[in-house]
Structure formats: structure tokens, C-alpha cells
Amino acid sequence: MLLRLTAATAALLFCVQAAALPRESRVPGGIALLPLPADSADSISATLDGKPVFVTRNTDGSRTLVVGIPLTATPGPLALLLRNGNATQEIRLDVVAKDYPEQRITLPTQQHVTPSDENLARYAREAKEQTAVYKAFREQSMSWPAFIQPVAGPYSSPFGLKRFFNGEPRAPHAGLDIAAPEGRPVQSPAAGVVAQTGDYFFNGRTVMIDHGNGLVSMLCHLSEIAVKKGQVLKPGDIIGKVGKTGRATGPHLHWTVSLNDARIDPLLLLPARAE
């Protein structure tokens, strides 16, 4: 998937204040930071499972690989392929086990637990649309972007929970839930381009933002969407309002972050705070 930007729009989007690198946590659903040698080729790149990795330019001129570790990763060595000029080499990082807690949720109906054939077909179409955004890679020579929390509120469901709906096991929680009243404005967490919007079976009204270099935010369960596909955003721009659409027991914002098509813990992008 390609997003076409004018030169002026691209300059506006990527002339943003560089942020400190995200916090490193080499666990499933975490981030690994791998500094690159100072004499690396300008064209140096890396892939994980065939998917391009974010190469960030730091304020001191150095560069770092910022690698998203899939939530499904098995603890142990994880291999990346590094291309430095004409040379190719394998580099490894060790993934440490993390035991995520369980969460049991009771929904008032079974339609979002055991969907009908019609809703399963709908979900398959919608998942394909979302996957295309996650797999897109708009390469940019850029520093790691500054992130803000998209809506004020306590963290109600952390990332990585092993989830059970009405007693039935389902996929782990691949995002962060932030409790907030219905109608509260939701901000873009970083500079980017609106890559997709939709009203989805599980996610409800949703906005997907491409921040560049395979870094994507998805903001779900909105009551209203205030942006359009292709719109350029600055951090803090309003993209919609908190709601409870889709599979939700009450109003909140679900925020998923994907890096090299790996779902990672959004808290690693924010300054640590006491809860």
C-alpha cells in the first residue's frame, strides 16, 4: 500500500521534533534497540522475518535499529538479516520470557464471542484491510518520533493480557486500553498520515495512523471519527472521540502500536508514570 504525498506535505509531516528512543524491553511484545556501526553504509537496512525494520537517525548522527518483537515470539534467540552495502549478515538478539496475566471479561451477548458465519466473513474482510496497513512500509530518513498519550485516563487493560470472553480463550490483548468518558476527544499520538478509517466488527469505529518506517497506531471503539484517509496529522491533532463501539463493555480507547508488523506495548513509547 502506497500513500502519495506532495513534497510540501512530506516536509510538514517529518520536520517534527526528534524524541528520545523508546524504552527497550526484549520480551514478546517489546522493543530491541541495536546501535549501528558509525561506518555503516547510508543504505543500511534490516529485516525480521522478511519485514523491514525501523532505522532511526539520532540527534548525534548515529543510527539505531528499533525492532518490534512479536507478541507471539518464542523466548530465545531471534535472528535479523542486516544488509550493509554489499555485505549481508545475520545478527541475533535474545528474547526473554514474560508471563502476562489473565483477564476474564463478560459480554452481554455472544455475538462478539462466537460470531455468526456472516460476521466471520465480515471480520475476515476487515482483518485483511487492517493487515495491509500494518504491512505497508513508507521508508523515510527520520528520527524516532515523539509520542504523547492519545487520551487522558487511567490504564484499564494493559498490553499482553491472556484474554477470556464469557469463559472462552481468545487472542492476547495486543494493545493498551485507556478508560475515558464517552465523547472525550482523542489525539493523534504522533505525527503521521491517516492510513485507514472504518467501522469494524470487533474494533468499532477505528482510525489507523502511519507514522512512517513501519510504525503504525490503531485507535479503536471511537464514537466519532474526525479525520479522513490521507490526512496529515501532527501530535495532538483530534482524530475522533472516545466511544464503546465494536466489542466493548464500556467507553474506552484501545490503542494498538505495530512496529515492523509486530504488535508492541504502547507504554514503551511513553514516559514511565506511576499508576
Any key phrases for this structure?
275 residues; mainly beta; Immunoglobulin-like; Glucose Permease (Domain IIA); eight-stranded antiparallel sheet; 21 strands; globular; disordered N terminus
Question: What is shown here, in short?
Answer:
By secondary structure, the chain is mainly beta.
What does this structure look like?
- This protein is mostly beta strands.
- The protein folds into two domains: 19-95, Immunoglobulin-like (Sandwich), CATH 2.60.40; 102-269, Glucose Permease (Domain IIA), CATH 2.70.70.10.
- Helices cover 10% and strands 38% of the residues.
- It has two helices and 21 strands.
- Strands 9, 12, 14, 15, 16, 18, 20 and 21 form an eight-stranded antiparallel sheet that branches. A four-stranded antiparallel sheet has the order 3-2-6-7, with no helix packed on it.
- A hairpin with a 2-residue loop joins strand 20 (252-259) and strand 21.
- It is globular and about 50 Å long.
- The chain starts with 6 loop residues before the first helix and ends in an 11-residue tail after the last strand.
